[in-house]
Amino acid sequence: MRRGSLKRRLLAAAASSIVLALVIAGIGLLLLFERHVERRMTSELQIYLDQIVSGIDRTQDGALQVVSEPAEPRFLEPLSGLYWQVAAEPDGPVLRSRSLWDETLALPADTLLDGEVHEHVIPGPAKSSLLVVEREVQLPERLGDRRIRAAVAIDRSEIHAAGRDFALDLVPSLALLAAILVAAAWVQVTVGLRPLDTVRRRLAAVRAGRATRLGTNFPDEVHPLAAEVDHLLDAQEKALERARARAADLAHGLKTPLTVLTSDAAELRARGEEQIADEIAAVTDGMRRHVERELARARAGARIHPRASHPLRPVVDQVVGVLRRTPRGHDLDWDVIVPEGISTRVDAQDLAEMLGNLAENAVKWAVRKIRITGWWTDTNLVLSVEDDGPGIPGSEAAAALARGQRLDESQPGSGLGLAIVSDLVETCGGSLSLGRSELGGLLAELHLPDSPRSVL
User: Which of 2, 93, 199, 430 has its CA 20 to 30 Å from the CA of residue 44?
Assistant: First the structure.
């Protein structure tokens, strides 16, 4: 996932929420488990307490004694963590289990009703914390008709130990559950964001000219977005059509004045005023090329509909056929190496405009030969135009593509040919490169994609 992606943020939020929820749930389960263990221990202590109270009797010398202790070996093991104690009220003897050794249970001052059971947490031997269950009982007359306070206690560390064991068993289960929930969240986020990816792919198709609109096959939450984008495309198409129409009107409005200027330049040349005629012709040619360039850019930018594939060779033959009928082109050797099976989705008029400018430039500088070659690479279509003229040094290649830049002022022209080609091929999603040809002159290569990009 890319940095800052919505998918990453949603997954991070889901994973954090899942982990936090499971941590809270784990702590809650641990507390509930310890509480459950404590209640179970309290119940057992009450059973021991009943057994101890019922086992109180008199010895032969008349002293009180627990003659029947609970059958629990830990009551006999010193400091085992399980203890009992019986104290006669108010200052009678204190009976206790062997496990207490020489310690006593420091029971809190408490008022107990006859038979009522109370629970306490008190300090115990060896700085332990004890859970105590106690009750006060009135002995029968045969046992002296006295009140006794009986208590049974257990070390609370056993509760915590049981909780730790439970946590060790719980953590792997919670970790597995977290992994399953995170995986489920990933599936949910992936499925939930899929319509947005569909929007992206359809927008790419519109930009590449393979589609005109996003369509309506989207969930209710995404459909308004797609509809707004389609409305924007409609408005953009209308704006481009209006701009194209205004450019055409402008070109038509300039056509007549340019024709008049051209006629005036011819008349001046006929009168022998060649310098003024050449200046007017140069200005007129520059204006015409500027208009042609802007018309080409407007025409290419206005195309937002899908383009069907068409053969490349007929376009090449058409351009070469026109240039061969010119005085310079008729004397040159044309070598066209473009297989019949090659096709392109670049608009035929745009391709003819680009190839025509490159070939016209080659005609201007070639000595004897021009070669036009077309072939496919792994990623795009390459169309090259080569000549055997002087060529362009590598350091001046960038300047040759600049708007209105002329490397040789002795040749006629406005210096816009290569700039127009560069604009058009960029609009189509390709590129133009200049280099040195094997013939000795300029090598100009058009790299055209299979699905050209449209400017929206």
Answer: 93
